[in-house]
Design goal:
The complex is a heterodimer of chains A (about 130) and B (about 230). Chain A is an all-alpha fold and about 130 residues long. Helix content of chain A is about 60%, strand content about 0%. The longest helix of chain A is centred in the N-terminal third of the chain and has 22 residues. With about 230 residues, chain B is of the alpha+beta class. The chains are: A mainly alpha (about 130), B alpha+beta (about 230).
């Protein structure tokens, strides 16, 4: 799995401005989590079970004051990865389509579903 | 629903929180697989030579076009094929099959072949003869075999071929007395190596197999002598 991730990162090194930085480290973590889920699903014997979008990823402990960040940290891994890659790392939709191996239509739907889940989490958190 | 700036700020905060939640580097250990190491080395090599690899690719395409062209020529031109074909090797799955591609021989040559130099410690154990082929088996005190054999071009009522199991064997083309030969090196060291070469004058296919390196096999092949029957 690290092999797959590092090969992807080496091909997308334009997203990395400084090698040794917290932002680069966070970027690597985001990509690794995503690729791990892909490999897990591919190798899983039982094809039924939670859809990729609903799979929980690594737990994120956010202790800051940003309510939106607090809710975003609770998102399922796939939606969280999508929003992080798009808004924290500047991935364009066509890059996201290539990354997630989805069509452009599927990317738009993933974007909408992710934001809807985020809205629900914010409602539960009484942010909105 | 959400402003892009708000999403951007939140995403950056979450990504940093994810990274901060990881264990310390000294607590993490990973060994990269040899396959990954090779792939990364290849990627780095290609990145360092942005002109060389595309140029090599162009040369490979040109050579492929030439090969395809010459193959078509050989297929349709009878004279070219007769000049080129004789003993032919064909790989079928894990077996290398040698057979004579051409008209049958009128008669078998009145010669036989012998190894002029037998490696020290080896003694002849058995000889298997047929009208078209001979196999001589030698063995040393450690029980290791040396096999020398040959087969002549088939006649009208006979079949002559050689089949080699080439699992875990690396094939290379070498020279025996100025003629191309096929050398099979067993990369596991368990089954021994094989050298196959041709005597175009007598239309014979010869081979030596045993636990010898390539240069020793070639030396033995080059010292094979012909004897009148």
């Amino acid at each position: 799995m690290p092999s797959t991730t590092l090969l992807w990162l080496s091909q997308k090194n334009s997203k990395i401005s400084t090698l040794q930085s917290p932002k680069t480290k966070a970027y690597v973590v985001t990509v690794v989590e995503s690729k791990a889920i892909d490999i897990y699903r591919a190798k899983r014997r039982n094809p039924t079970g939670p859809l990729t979008e609903d799979m929980e990823g690594i737990p994120v402990d956010y202790h800051g004051n940003d309510g939106l960040a607090r809710c975003m940290a609770k998102l399922p891994a796939r939606h969280r990865e999508f929003l992080l890659l798009k808004y924290a790392y500047g991935y364009e939709n066509r890059e996201l389509a290539q990354y997630f191996n989805l069509s452009m239509d599927a990317i738009y739907k993933l974007d909408q579903r992710g934001k809807e889940k985020l809205r629900l989490l914010c409602q539960e958190d009484k942010m909105i | 629903m959400f402003l892009d700036d708000d999403l951007r700020r939140a995403a950056q905060a979450v990504s940093l929180a994810m990274a901060d939640g990881l264990p310390a580097p000294e607590d993490c250990r990973h060994a990269f697989s040899p396959a990954f190491t090779r792939r990364m080395a290849r990627l780095i090599r290609r990145t360092k030579h942005p002109v060389l690899y595309p140029a090599l690719r162009s040369v490979a395409c040109l050579l492929l076009a030439m090969l395809l062209g010459s193959s078509i020529w050989l297929t349709v031109n009878v004279e070219a094929r007769e000049a080129f074909f004789g003993w032919v090797g064909e790989q079928i799955e894990n077996v290398q099959h040698y057979f004579f591609d051409g008209p049958d021989a009128g008669e078998t040559p009145n010669v036989r072949y012998r190894l002029a130099e037998i490696p020290e410690g080896y003694e002849e154990l058995d000889t298997d003869c047929s009208p078209l082929s001979v196999t001589v088996l030698y063995v040393n005190h450690d029980g290791r075999f040396l096999r020398f054999g040959y087969v002549f071009r088939p006649t009208e009522d006979s079949i002559a071929d050689i089949a080699l199991v080439t699992d875990e064997m690396k094939k290379s083309v070498v020279q025996v007395n100025g003629t191309s030969a096929d050398c099979y090196i067993d990369e596991t060291g368990e089954t021994g190596n094989v050298l196959v070469w041709r005597d175009h004058e007598k239309d014979a296919l010869l081979y030596i197999s045993g636990y010898f390196n390539q240069s020793t096999l070639i030396h033995m092949a080059e010292t094979v002598i012909q004897i009148e029957k």
